[in-house]
Amino acid sequence: MQSSDNPMQSLMYITNRPDIVFTRGSGSWIFDSEGKRYLDFIQGWAVNSLGHCHPAMIEALEKQARALINPSPAFYNEPMANLATLLTGHSVFDKVFFANSGAEANEGAIKLARKWGKKFKNGAYEIITFDHSFHGRTIATMSASGKPGWDTLYAPQVPGFPKAELNDIASVEKLIGEKTVAVMLEPIQGEGGVIPATREFMRELRELTQRHGLLLIVDEVQSGCGRAGTLFAYELAGIEPDIMTLGKGIGGGVPLAALLSKAEVAVFEAGDQGGTYNGNPLMAAVGHAVIKTLVTPGFLESVRARGAYLREKLLELSAERGFEGERGEGLLRALLLGKDIGPQIVEKARELQPTGLLLNAARPNLLRFMPALNVTDDEIDQMMAMLRTVLDSL
Ligand SMILES: *Cc1c(COP(=O)(O)O)cnc(C)c1O
User: Fold this and answer.
1) Residue 100 C-alpha to ligand 1 middle, in angstroms?
2) Residue 302, domain extent
3) What is the 6 CA–ligand 1 centroid distance (Å)?
4) Does the residue 133 lie in any domain?
5) Residues 304-340: tens digit of each pLDDT
6) Cβ(108)–Cβ(244) below 8 Å
7) For the segment 52-61, what is each residue's pLDDT rounded down to a tens digit?
């Protein structure tokens, strides 16, 4: 038992957090317990697609909370069906399984591919993944990830995830063998530093996997749900994957994730897959409100326009300060600093007075921007002005 003046003392240490407690948020703005406000270009880690506390989400939460919160995963409920239908209606997939986190959705994708391999490919189970990829923090998804150091952190790893190099089709082809069942990738590596797979590479991968009878799995936990300017990032390459996972933006801030597949790949049998909260109606109702908003005519066009605007502003700044340009899709972008000043910028931006700015440095030599998808040009201008103030002070 512990007692102390610090109310955070009882939390298990996992990472260094700034000495700030956030108490409320609205749109692109978040407020701490001292009343200081911050312009939020992190948005829960590319999670709050509609910004903080969007009315459509609050309404869905309230309505569903009064109706039914948890009937048990052994029964159908209406929100799970409504959201699944919305997702299949706006994607190339036919079947949906809901989960609570991106890692859990990816675990489901790995299991589904292994099951499919057992059934149709002589027990093949290897899934080719990529250097610098990020698929989650469970033991299997850490093993699938190509994050440096993770191969030994909680050794031994789960076997069966050989690593290829993004945008290098020969590196994938080289790894294909009798045991290979699938290739899994993020269409845009988010945690790796906002590195898009090229459209050409996505098409080559589709062709290669088809030729070898392998599944193509896209982890769209970060790139999906409007973030890339299209509802799903695979659309940018004009290809049809076999399996997709969603997380982060699908719930707009509540814990919700999904595993989607083509009908012929949905081979789970009774008891193969589950989870206490899968298809929980409270979360599904919120996810439905979020996706419904994203597919409103004009919404995704506006994400693309804001993304183009942010890109233009970042390129201007880059030219002005001698940085190395920018990259990304839609409203998932990175400014390439060319030196390891990212963490310093992040800290100084947060400490700006009277209004702070929340930014992320996915790697020390870049800044990652993941604002609300309904961010305004004016908020982008404010962010750029604050960023200039920080850069002037370095
Ligand atoms: C965040 C992320 C995950 C993990 O999601 P959690 O909800 O944290 O488990 C998996 N894949 C990608 C691409 C991500 O960005």
Assistant:
1) 11
2) 297-326+335-370+381-394
3) 30
4) yes
5) 999 999 999 999 999 999 999 999 999 999 999 999 9
6) no
7) 999 999 999 9
